[in-house]
Amino acid sequence: MSDPFACTGTVSLKPGREASVLRRHPWVYRGALATPLPAGCLPLRVQAANGRPLGVALPGGSGGSLALRMVTFGREGWDEAALAALVRRAAALRDRLALDADAYRLVHAEGDGLSGLVIDRYGEVAVVEPYEAAWEPYLEAIASLLADGLGFSTVLVRPAGRAARPVRVLRGHMPEVPLVIREGRLRFAVDVEAGQKTGFFLDQRENRRRLGALAGGAEVLNLFSYSGGFAVAALAGGAVRAVNVDASAAALSLARHAYELNGLEVREPDFIEGDAFRVVRDLVAAGQRYGVVVVDPPAFVKRRGDLEGGLRGYRDINLHALRLTAPGGLLFTCSCSALVSEQQFGQALLGAALDAGRGLRVLERRGAGPDHPVSAFCGEAEHLKAWLCTVD
Ligand code: SAH
Question: Which of 171, 206, 223 represents a domain boundary (last residue)?
């Protein structure tokens, strides 16, 4: 196989468009290119209009307007040692974060200097999720690093581009699904083969913990529950009941499994399979109230064109969540759309509170845990807003 680190060509940017790259921002959009992007997946040298070298980039093929993802800057070399150094730095960082969990994000793309590459750790299993086909030629080198260098027994890859392509085994063998992982004293069931993302929402770990500490004595409504993370944390923290709502039957069976792993009683009415937008209306009509309501929907805004509709979605689901929150109760409401700013999210919540005729006070503006670092040079990559509010 040809050397995946050898540059196959050079692209020039339009005059002035080098400024963000000089500030170590890894994304270059199509509109910034002065020369066409050569076809293929191999790395390219990037230069300013005046010929100044800006670094090496992988081509972005994911369809959007992203043309290049910088992997080195200036004259830094792009080779196996450079890739290994970044992966090792990422692993060393996690080792010192005192996460008290055997599952965490090992490599968080831009936040670890590896734009478009995610690697999650589930115990001894590493799951690699490249967002671009351009990472494919590096998977063999990455698997060696993870297995031989970092001691993972199993390395899996979820191929780029969501199409229902199966998870591939790069090292070891396909583990029995679901895997069991630990967060503090809690256990969760992770489906690395067919689950969402790489199998679990690792970004909510610290928020699950926080909710667990606040849910004692409460009845909890967990909207968009996926594998029941917030419900298990709340029940282990002394909540009297938690109702999970998710559109996916597979997600709810992972949630039931997580209840069993933690010695919690599985009561069928607490697992509602359905569209949360409909279920909340039914619950409002039935006069239900909860001391704690969690709203953690999928990203409603995946591209800029979704913004208006997505913000309406946040406003609508939070309006109903507010109606379902008992006075003095807690609303823990999230958006994982990177394209929605804190300000826009706040406005959607304000609109919902006005429509509901309820007071809403923000207690904590939280985000993803520290295993999801955000590069100061690429703040747009920050995705999760998780706000703890009290509803009057
Ligand atoms: N709170 C979860 C993560 C939620 S991810 C955790 O902490 O692990 C978003 C979830 O919303 C997914 O499980 C998906 O199946 C579900 N979902 C997507 N659209 C939905 C809808 N309209 N109604 C209910 N659930 C939905």
Answer: 171
